[in-house]
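Exercise: predict the fold of this chain.
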Amino acid sequence: PQVAACLANLGFVALDQGELSHAGESFHESLALFRGSGDQRNIAYVLGGLGTLAFLQGDYGGAAAIQEEALHVLRRLGAPQGVADTVSDLAHAVQRQGEIARAQELYVEALHRYRELGDPGGAAFVLAHLGRLACEKGDTAGAAALLHESFQVSQQIGEKPLLTEAVEGLAEVACVRGE
């Protein structure tokens, strides 16, 4: 288990540093060891890393399939934060595949879960993505409301990357409106 955990951690460090091939090698080795030991929680953890890796490589279908597998494990384990995060990641992957209706359903589920958990950062992230989806569908008023809420929550918790995302979305809405 320690070797598998070290490999998983190396995978996440490599991912953060943009060393995608090294991340993939570490994740795959780690996943094989965790599967061998039956450690479901860490299987889900490493699958999350592999899903992120696939997403970053532009393999949105692969990312969605991996996130679906992780989600199945996390639901079975009853891991509410992991489920919320994975539903959000899955929504992002299917959005990139052009499955807008499914992405919206998943984002709404993630938002509900983040609010239940009292996770304002997760909620702000999802609100921004729901706002951008609304903008894509031509609902600029709905988009502006969702993005403004994301901005307010992000400001309250002091999350600059989330603030930036909300501001970029609001700018996009303004451009679509011709403002």
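Check your answer against the key: The first helix runs from residue 2 to 16.
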